[in-house]
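Hey L., structure's done. Input below.
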Amino acid sequence: MSTLIVYITPGVTHDIEYDYVLSDDGQSVAATGRTSAALLPSIASGEVVAVVAVQALSWQSVQLPKGSIGARGAIPSPRLRAVLDGLLEERLLDEPQELHFALAPNARPDAPVWVCVCERAWLKAALQQLENAGRAATRIVPEFAPEANASGSSLQVMGTEQHPVLIQSSASGVRLSPLNAGSAAAATAGNLATEPAPRVLAEPAVAALAEQCFKRPVELQQSAQRWLLASSSSWDLAQFDLASSGRLRTLKKLAQHWQALRHAPQWRAMRWGACALVLSQLLGLNLWAWHEKSALQAQRAAVSAVLTQTFPNVRVVVDAPTQMEREVAALRQATGTASGGDLEAMLTAASMAIPARRSLSSLEFSAGEARMKGLQLSSTEVTTLSTWLGRQGYSVRSEGEVLVLQTQGRK
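Output:
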């Protein structure tokens, strides 16, 4: 499933160009570029992820009152929005009504919760422009977010040589500062001597400057790779008045989980295991089919061997059961031996089951079928007779006053 990642920066949202990244699997960059919203690549099946620039966001940690949020996470609602307005009103420079809030994923009422804050009008205008161009965002993620489970921090250097910016993302939040020797030293000062130095990533344009400030080599990371990594975040800023419908939220979550199952490194072992399971099942089915085919061929060969050994004059076996029946019938005829389909054998078997003092008024016989008239049997007697003769290899049915006796298998 393809993913179109659109980078949204603060400022004017009309007639501007967007940086974008196109990924075929959500893990690698297939194409990058910069163009207007109307000329962004169109994807038939996939998702559009809007990555909000780090400069447009601020972060606040709050302790939600009990009962303001469910145990399984935040549910965007006017009541919860009013709670956040009251908690953040004194911390913010702008009026809460002018700002958009988004809670951290899997927020709980018994622990501090990160709240992402940005200008509401600007974000809604940017999303509306993408929607008008037919590129409606299915998810909105921050470029950087606090790393709740991180033991240290990650450092990122971006910008230009004239205006380099250092971003420090850790469990204590996201901090932006101009890159210089002082900010580099402050970012690494909290690490103990026994701990490894924090990882430093830098865009190529400011990599040399970053190495000078940190006095050690840095890892190169293109902006497209950074946005692709941000798109896999569990954050979704589409909350409260920007929240999607329940059905769309479910589809977004399913798409995100499917992408993770298909391409995420942590699921690689499961993918290999699933492939191995499918292959083993296919191999097992083929082996079972081969075994059954071999057993069937062995049974056919055994039947053919019985036929050719019993009747040596049979040279070619085409239909062993039919040929054997034909040969047995010919042998009986040649020796004068009666068979179950002869009239004498059929009358002998019927006389043992027909009630006493019953006589026939007429009898018609053709190969394997005797039609007897005049017995005047009740339905109960016909059923009893049918049960008895069925054990002898005959079938019985009543056609009015006529009792039809046949050898089984004949119609």
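Residues 265-337 form one domain. The chain has four domains: 1-144+233-263, 146-222, 265-337, 343-407.

-- N.
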